[in-house]
UniProtKB/TrEMBL annotation:
Classification lineage: Bacteria, Pseudomonadati, Pseudomonadota, Alphaproteobacteria, Hyphomicrobiales
The gene coding this protein: fliI
Region (Disordered): 462-483
EC number(s) from the headed UniProt entry: 3.6.3.14
InterPro entries, per database record: AAA+_ATPase (IPR003593), ATPase_a/bsu_AS (IPR020003), ATPase_alpha/beta_chains (IPR050053), ATPase_F1/V1/A1_a/bsu_nucl-bd (IPR000194), P-loop_NTPase (IPR027417), T3SS_ATPase_C (IPR040627)
Keyword Glycoprotein: no
Protein name per UniProt: Flagellum-specific ATP synthase FliI
Pfam families listed in its UniProt record: ATP-synt_ab, T3SS_ATPase_C
Length: 483
């Protein structure tokens, strides 16, 4: 994709053109009465607009698309989709039809912005028309109509397939601090061949990372069936939240047509940051480390859009989202909230990454709530033993470094010291490596090989000792007899 990304806000231009090219008929209009950072106060439209509706502000620099974010008794507040426009008091504001691109098969292999407009330098997407949102089903119907999530699949990442296996329709979080390897692990999962479509939401990412993810990380096969929706960190908070919502809307469109969809969401934390910007600008009180209540209300609404289809089509949305843990504090508000919403979490450790062991998955802290549906009975017993060995190995690390471990005093610890390095080496994997078809068998074979090697060494050592003792006795006896 040469020259990507290209700033071609065709969707925004089409939305703004509504105010310029519309037929000269009488229309209700408002005007800007106050301007604050990131939002406008508009009077004259309060009785005719709804929350989330699109507007257009006529400025001297041209039409500016807006979205209603709050409705008061006498006026409304709206936020612009783009920065850089000079908006003045008394500028005219008009209502506009909603413009969010309607998902289509033509979106595969393309890169879009938060409004569904192509930004990859390719041809414009045909049929970028608004679509009425589907009527929400009742809560009881939605709960009882959902299919069971119980069919497992292989991701190709051995550490996840063994210790935190996934099922179609599951929602998993990857928790880590900055620079530990969340995006790298996400890129490994993006190339899974178990899905009909892959929807990638890059929310609040760096421009460089977004470009590299599309051009270097994704393999050709995955790139052809991937839809990437990007809102970089320098875009407005409104555009970032809109991109997150469009990511899930696109995935739902494919799921309702019987497709198995993989959603890679990077990252939920930056989506929460965008919500925080909007909430604080509207005057909400920050209740938890600067986050207003609306953030914690919006997160489950977004996450619950994943899962199996309700219409019996067989489609599903499997969601893997990264969570940026501020200051490596895993109990911070966003991470703690998401652990209670998601169906599992993979914790990446900075200490493991510092050792050069990738992916740096902390298997003792990671959990899949659907693991029992993915494992067979033999797999469950095998993984339980592996986790017990790893837990004993890690909890005695300081003791062993201080010289407090003596071989033979604790047979289980001896086994852990012998086996755990082999386990770690078995799940070591670089982004370009292809995981084993059966990771359980691969680990079992390596452990068996090490056990047999140790047994052979003990036999040889015992034989050498016995042989040495026999030779010494024979020599002593001969000397005695010769004396």
């Amino acid at each position: 994709m040469p020259g990507w990304p290209v700033t071609d806000h065709s969707g925004l231009q089409a939305l703004a053109a509504f105010a310029v090219e519309a037929a000269p008929v009488a229309r209700e209009a408002g005007r800007v009465v106050a301007i604050a950072a990131g939002q406008l106060r508009i009077r004259g439209l309060g009785n005719s607009v709804s929350l989330g509706e699109c507007l257009v502000c006529q400025t001297q620099d041209g039409p500016v698309p807006l979205q209603v974010v709050r409705i008061d008794s006498s006026d409304i507040r709206a936020a612009p989709f783009l920065d850089g426009f000079r908006i003045r008091r008394d500028d005219i504001v008009l209502r506009a039809p909603p413009h969010t691109g309607c998902p289509d098969e033509a979106w595969k292999g393309r890169v879009l912005d938060g409004l569904g407009s192509a930004i990859d330098g390719g041809p414009a997407i045909v049929g970028e028309t608004a679509e009425e949102p589907p009527v929400a089903q009742g809560r009881s119907q939605r709960i009882l109509s959902a299919c069971r999530v119980d069919e497992a699949f292989r991701t190709g990442v051995a550490a996840i397939d063994v210790f935190t296996p996934l099922c179609y329709g599951q929602r998993l979080g990857i928790f880590a601090g900055s620079g530990v390897g969340k995006s790298t692990l996400l890129s490994m999962l993006a190339n899974s061949g178990a899905f009909d479509a892959v929807v990638i939401g890059l929310i609040g990412e760096r421009t460089r990372e977004a470009r590299e993810f599309m051009t270097e990380t994704l393999q050709d096969e995955a790139r052809q069936k991937a839809i990437t929706i990007v809102a970089t960190s320098d875009e407005t908070a409104l555009m970032r939240t809109r991109a997150a919502e469009l990511t899930m809307t696109t995935a739902e469109w494919y799921r309702d047509r019987g497709k198995r969809v993989l959603v890679l969401f990077d990252s939920v934390t930056r989506y929460a940051h965008a919500l925080r910007e909007i909430g604080i600008a509207l005057g909400e009180a920050p209740i938890a480390r600067g986050y207003p209540p609306s953030v914690f209300a919006a997160l489950p609404k977004l996450m619950e859009r994943g899962g199996p289809a309700l219409n019996g089509s067989g489609g599903s949305i499997t969601m893997i989202a990264t969570v940026l843990v501020d200051g490596d504090e895993h109990n911070e508000p966003i991470g703690d909230t998401l652990r209670g919403i998601l169906d599992g979490h993979v914790v990446l450790s900075r200490a493991i990454a510092a050792e050069g062991r990738y992916p740096p998955v902390d298997v003792t802290q990671s959990l899949s709530r659907l693991a029992l549906r993915a494992w067979s009975k033999e797999h469950r017993l095998f993984v339980s033993e592996l986790k017990a060995l790893i837990a004993r190995y890690e909890e005695t690390q300081d003791l062993r470094l201080l010289g407090g471990w003596r071989p033979g005093a604790d047979p289980f610890l001896d086994k852990a010291v012998e086996m755990v390095p082999v386990i770690y080496d078995s799940i070591r994997q670089s982004p370009g490596d292809v995981g084993p078809l059966d990771p359980f068998d691969a680990i079992a074979r390596r452990l068996k090989s090490v056990a047999e090697s140790k047994t052979e060494e003990k036999k040889n050592a015992a034989f050498s000792t016995a042989k040495g003792q026999g030779a010494s006795s024979f020599g002593a006896t001969s000397a005695f007899m010769g004396g």
